[in-house]
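If you are new to this repository, start here. Below is one unmodified record pulled from the training split, so you can see the exact layout before writing a loader.
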Amino acid sequence: MVGEYLRIEIESDELHRKIGVGIPKGALMLIEGEDGSGKSIVCQRLLYGFLKNGHTVTYICSEMTMKDFISQMKSIEYRIHEFITTKKLLYIPMFPRVGKVVPREDFLYRLMNAEKLFENEAIIIDTLNSLIKENFSKRDIFEFISFVKKIINSGRTIIITANPSLVDQKVLDLLRAICDIHFKLEIKSIGGDLKRFINIYRFRGSSIQITGGIGFRVEPKIGFVIEIAAVA
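And here is the target side for that same chain:
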């Protein structure tokens, strides 16, 4: 699908200029980072960019109910309610709406068998470490990787976030090997301030040459902001 992209351009930041036209269709994107490094806000920025450019998205989240997610997005001026009502965005929380949260070991398998969830142009899984069992068997790994390949081979783009300290290393190594786009997020201390960076390890299919990293921050009522003067 060379030359075909899911566009991400929005008026409030220049992320699209840093990575090219957008995210290639049929790509597997892996976003790694420790807790607090910004995995979710990067996903939320990509989600909003997709939606504003007319694309359809399924967002699978292990941390927030739909109500919490809508409030979170609104707090950074990413208003998504209309996209939910028009079915451009399908939001799947791992949480129940009320009651005690009980992790389901079969949640990932239930998702993999719900084919309708994967009909949208982009599928975002945030985060993988909350969805897989601690000790994946070889069969589990094979089934999951086969599932991921099936999705991207159908022309859908899939974005997966993972905390490298918490995900089964065998699964992570395989995802690193087969992904088309590989971002690693980190926090650095620069001049006494903590700065977040997107380090781009791989970006197949970009419309521009990408080098170095991208500094960013998050501001209330503004959202994702590129740190123009940051040095990665």
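Two things worth knowing about this chain: DSSP finds seven helices and eleven strands in the chain. The longest helix spans residues 138-153.
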